[in-house]
Amino acid sequence: MLYKGKKNKRIYHVLLFCSISLLQLHAQNTNSFYVDMGGSFSTFQDVKYSNVRYNGFGGEFGMGYQKENQKAIWGVNFNAMFTSEKADKHNVGTARTNNLTVGAKYLYNVKRNLFVGATWDILDLYKKDFDGLQNNSGYDIIGSTLWASGVYDYKKFRFGLDVGLASYFRESRGFAFSVPQNVMESGDFDYQNGKFDDHFAFKYYELRTMPRHFQVRTTIRYQLSNKFSIAYKWHLRKFSEVKKYPVTYGAHSISIRYNVFNRIK
User: Fold this and answer.
1) What confidence score (pLDDT) does residue 256 get?
2) Is the pLDDT of residue 178 over 90?
3) In the predicted structure, residue 62 carries a pLDDT above the cut 50
């Protein structure tokens, strides 16, 4: 009887240890603040003005805060990409490109290792400066985008996909005396109207949804250690103010992420 009592006691301790371990695992939260640095390659073409395509290399920098557990992933981030592009059809013509985004995301676990949700790029500024165009050298697209997002984890890999659902944005004038097509069609064009260059003139913004405004982003991240990971990212955007004459740009990047802190509770 004494032997059976000791045996039952051991079984009880084992079961208690396993239960506590499972509860700790289920409740485990990971909080991290990270910094990204890497290289990028971008391309740009605006067919309504020219069939010349610009391509070039540059760098990428980002930072953000992320919290995740078995139930959800959420976070906020800032990302900046800088490239110097050259015309692909001749030796004359360069463009300096800056793309800045500030965003937030929330994804919910729907099955093992699969999270789905939404990402909101609260601010997305895409700006180019073309050499040789003097007063018309500046071109930018500014706005905000809502994405449908998904993340799938497989061992040390994390695969991410974002599909743009809707964009509220404005395309500036550029390449000679152009203005957004909706301004031309409404009859509001005026060479003296400074609001065409005002980023906060929301009267000239448009709400575009798929497929009129197509955007997709993909990410493949490999976790090297608790502190470091490496990622490949791709982004494509295509829309048309004038039918069959689209603006298309894309970017590829490879970056290293360093977790300044990575706390597990």
Assistant:
1) 98
2) no
3) yes
Q: What is the DSSP letter of 88?
A: S
Q: HEC states along 37-62?
A: EEEEEEEEEECCCCCCCEEEEEEEEE
Q: Rounded CA gap, 127 and 97, in Å?
A: 6
* Residue 246: cis peptide before it, omega within 30 degrees of 0: no
What is the three-class DSSP state of 133? coil
**Of 126, 129, 173, the residue nearest 145 (C-alpha):** 126
Q: Which of 46, 38, 87, 39 is nearest to 249 (CA)?
A: 46
| Partners of 232 in beta bridges | 220, 254
Helix (H, G, I), strand (E, B) or coil at 72: strand
Residue 115 burial (C-beta neighbours within 10 Å; 0-12, 13-18, 19+): buried
Residue 25: its pLDDT value, please? Answer: 40
Residue 48 gets which letter from DSSP?
Answer: T
Q: Say how far apart CA 183 and CA 206 lie, in whole Å.
A: 11
Q: Do the beta carbons of residue 264 and residue 28 sit within 8 Å?
A: yes
pTM of the model as a whole: 0.80
- 23 pLDDT exceeds 50? no
End-to-end CA distance of the chain: 42
Q: Does residue 20 register a pLDDT over 90? A: no
Q: Residue 39 pLDDT > 70, yes or no?
A: yes
Is 59:42 a contact under the CB 8 Å cutoff? no
Report d(CA 187, CA 185) in Å as an integer. Answer: 5
DSSP 155-191: TTEEEEEEEEEEEEEEEPP-SSS---HHHHHHT---T
Strand partners, 34: 64, 259
pLDDT score at 10: 61
